[in-house]
Design a protein that fits this description.
376 residues; alpha/beta; Rossmann fold; 6-stranded parallel beta sheet; 13 strands; 19% strand; globular
C-alpha cells in the first residue's frame, strides 16, 4: 500500500525557485513508486503553485497573510521567508493537514517532508502528532531539527559532521551529492554525453542565475562575456525564470548580440546543459544538475547561503567562483572567461572532476530509505 506524503515548500521573489524544483523531483519519484503526494505552499509573490499543479500534484494552499509590526520571526536566520508569523505558520499548516487527513480518512501522514529554511524543530515538534515520520531537506545547518531523516545533498569538506549538533544522534543523515535530487532526464543524458572535447568544439555557453535573479546578475555576466563570444566564435544560451523581474532588460541586450539566444522558463535544462561546454551562473540548485552532466562553470554566489558550498567546491576546482555578486563586475566575468578559454586542459579537468561527484541516482536512494524506514 502506498505512503501518504505531504511536502511543505515555497517559492518566492525572495527565496527563489530551487526548493520547489528539487521537491517536485522527489515528489515525482515518490509517485512513480505508487505513493500519494500533496504539496503545502504559501501564496507568496513569485510562487510556483501553478507549476506544481501542472505536474498533476494537488496543492494545499496557505494564504499570504502579513507579518505583524510587533513580531519578527527570529527563531532562525531565514524565518521571515515564511511571510507570516511563525506561530501562524504552524497553526495554518496544522489546520490544512488536519483537513486533508479528514478527507482521506487517515489519522496520520506516513511522511511529512519540509524544504524550507524558515522551518526548524519547533514546527517539526508541533506537527509530530499528524505524521509518523519527518524528513527535512536542508543546505545550511544553521538551526535545530526534530526529524527522522535529514537530507543535505551538498558537498562540504566537513559534511560528515556538519549536522551532529543540529539533530538527534538517531536521525538518519543522508549527506552529500550521492543523494542529490535530480530528475531522471539527467541520468538518461549522462550515458549519452558527447566527449568533452567535442562539446568544447561545438562552442555553446549556458547562462543561468536562478529562477528569480532579483539583482540581475545575468545582465552583468552578459556585459562581460557576450562581446567575447564573437571573438572566440561561440554561441550563448541565456535562461531566465518566468518571475525574473529583469526580462525586458535582458531581452533587449540579447537582441544586440547575434551570438545570444534567450529562453524563459524552460523544461529541458538537462538537454541544454548536455550540449554546453561551460555554465555561467549561480551556485544554487543547479550545481548538481550541471555536475551530473560534466559541465564546468564560472559562478558567483547570489545569496549568503551559497557561500559555504562555493568555498568547498573551489577547494577541489569544481568551478571558478568569483565570490559574492555584490563584489563582481562585468570585467570579472570577462577575465574568468578568458582564463578558461586559454586553458582548455583546465576545462577538461574540471569536467572530469564534477562528473565524478554525482551519479543522478540520489532521488531513488532517498525514496528507498523512506520506504525501508516506513516498513520498520
Amino acid at each position: 500500500m502506498g505512503l501518504n506524503v505531504a511536502l511543505r515548500v515555497d517559492a518566492s521573489l525572495t527565496m527563489g525557485t530551487g526548493h520547489v524544483y528539487r521537491s517536485l523531483t522527489l515528489a515525482s519519484q515518490l509517485r512513480q513508486h505508487g505513493h500519494q503526494v500533496v504539496f503545502i505552499c504559501r501564496q507568496l509573490p513569485g510562487n510556483l503553485i501553478d507549476l506544481i499543479t501542472a505536474h498533476d500534484f494537488r496543492v494545499l494552499p496557505l494564504s499570504q497573510g502579513a507579518m505583524t509590526t510587533t513580531t519578527a520571526n527570529d527563531h532562525c536566520q531565514h524565518g521571515d521567508w515564511l511571510g507570516v508569523d511563525y506561530q501562524q505558520e504552524i497553526a495554518q499548516a496544522a489546520q490544512v493537514v488536519d483537513h486533508y487527513l479528514g478527507e482521506i480518512g487517515c489519522t496520520q501522514l506516513d511522511w511529512l517532508i519540509i524544504d524550507h529554511y524558515g522551518i526548524d524543530h519547533h514546527w517539526h515538534t508541533a506537527m509530530r502528532s499528524r505524521c509518523q515520520q519527518v524528513l527535512q531537506i536542508d543546505d545550511l545547518a544553521d538551526r535545530d531539527f526534530d526529524c527522522d531523516i535529514l537530507l543535505d545533498q551538498n558537498f562540504y569538506l566537513n559534511m560528515d559532521s556538519r549536522y551532529d549538533a543540529r539533530c538527534a544522534a538517531a536521525t538518519t543523515k543522508l549527506i552529500g551529492p550521492r543523494f542529490a535530487l535530480l530528475n531522471e532526464m539527467f541520468g538518461q543524458l549522462q550515458s549519452q554525453l558527447a566527449p568533452y572535447p567535442q562539446r568544447l568544439t561545438q562552442g555553446q555557453v549556458l547562462f543561468f542565475f536562478g529562477g528569480i535573479d532579483k539583482d540581475n546578475e545575468t545582465l552583468k555576466a552578459l556585459k562581460g562575456v557576450a562581446p567575447l563570444l564573437r571573438q572566440y566564435q561561440l554561441t550563448g544560451q541565456v535562461i531566465l525564470g518566468k518571475h525574473n523581474p529583469h526580462q525586458a532588460d535582458v531581452t533587449a541586450f540579447c537582441r544586440d548580440f547575434g551570438q545570444l539566444s534567450l529562453a524563459v522558463q524552460v523544461d529541458d535544462m538537462a538537454r541544454r546543459m548536455a550540449h554546453a561546454f561551460l555554465y555561467i551562473g549561480a551556485v544554487g540548485a543547479t550545481v548538481w544538475e550541471r555536475c551530473s552532466l560534466a559541465l564546468p562553470a564560472i559562478t558567483s554566489t547570489v545569496a549568503l547561503n551559497q557561500q559555504a558550498l562555493a568555498e568547498s567546491l573551489s577547494q577541489i576546482d569544481a568551478h571558478l567562483c568569483l565570490g559574492p555578486q555584490q563584489q563582481t563586475r562585468p570585467a570579472d566575468y570577462a577575465r574568468a572567461f578568458i582564463t578558461l578559454m586559454n586553458s582548455p586542459e583546465r576545462l577538461q579537468a574540471q569536467s572530469a572532476t564534477v562528473a565524478l561527484m554525482v551519479d543522478a541516482l540520489g532521488c531513488s536512494r532517498v525514496v528507498d530509505v523512506m520506504e525501508s524506514m516506513n516498513d520498520h
